[in-house]
Automatic annotation (TrEMBL):
NCBIfam families: Cof-subfamily, HAD-SF-IIB. GO terms for molecular function: magnesium ion binding; phosphatase activity. This is Haloacid dehalogenase-like hydrolase. InterPro entries: Cof (IPR000150), HAD-like_sf (IPR036412), HAD-SF_hydro_IIB (IPR006379), HAD_sf (IPR023214). It holds the Pfam family Hydrolase_3. GO terms for cellular component: cytosol. SUPFAM superfamilies: HAD-like.
Amino acid sequence: MELKLIGIDMDDTLLRENKTYDEERFKKVYEELKEQGITTVIASGNSYPRLDEYFSHMNHEDLYFAGDNGNYIVKKEEVLHKAVVDYPEIWEVAKKLSEMDNISSIYCDGVHSYSTGINKEYEDYILSYYGNLQIVDSLDEIKMDEIVKIANHMPSSLEEIKKNAQKITDEFSTFNAVSSGGGWFDIFDIHGGKGSAIQALQEKYNAKPEETMVFGDSQNDASMVEHAKYSVALSNADDKLKEISNYEIGSNEDQAVLDILEELIKKGSLEFMEQYKK
C-alpha cells in the first residue's frame, strides 16, 4: 500500500442525509486497512460522544476520533489532544454572536455541550447533533477556558452563514470560523481544526502528504485538504472545497467513500485514482 493515513469526515461525506452509513461495509474496510498498516481517523464537527455512538457496532480501539472539528482527539477513550480556544477573548466572541439574529450557539468542551438557549423551531434538529446539550441560565455557568468549539446554527442560506463566519475570522485574530454544512458554522482556535489533527497524526506515523488521503464535503474540511495529496471531495461537496481538492468522486448517498476504499484494498495501489482526478 502507498498510503499511511486516511481522514474521513462524517456528515454528508460518510453519512447519508438520513445520518446512516453502511456499517458492515465500513467495519470490513476498516479491518482490512488496519491489517495493511493504514491509520484511519474520523475527523468531524461532531463531538466525541456522538462519534462514538456511530461506531458502537464494532471494535474501534484503533480508530482515531478527531471530534469538534479536529480539536478533541481520542483513541481508546484516551484524550490525546485538546485545542482550547483563546481565553478570555472567547467572551468577546460570545458577545459578537449574541448580536446576530436567529442564532443558536453551542459551547463544546469535547464531551459536554452547553447553550443559553436554542431556536425551538429547530430544537429536534439541533439535538440530533448535541443530544447531551445542557441549557444554562448564563455563560458564567460554563467553564469557558475549557471550550474547544462554538457551534452555531442559523436557518439561513449558506452564503449568509459564510458571511457570518467571515465576520468572526476578520474581527478575532486568534479564532477561525468555517461553515460546516446543514445550517452550521463552527468557531475554534486559529491553530486548531481538522488539518491540525491530520498533521499531528502525520507526525506520529511519519506519514507524508503524498501518503495521506482525506474525504470531505464542507469548508471545515479545507484544512485537511491542505495536508493531503489525495484530497477527495464528494460530488455533493461545497464548490469551494471542490476547487481546492485534487479528486472528486460520487455522492454520500451512494456511499462513494466506501467504494473508493474498497477499490483501494482490491487494487493494492492508488493508480485507479487517476480516473477521479480533476
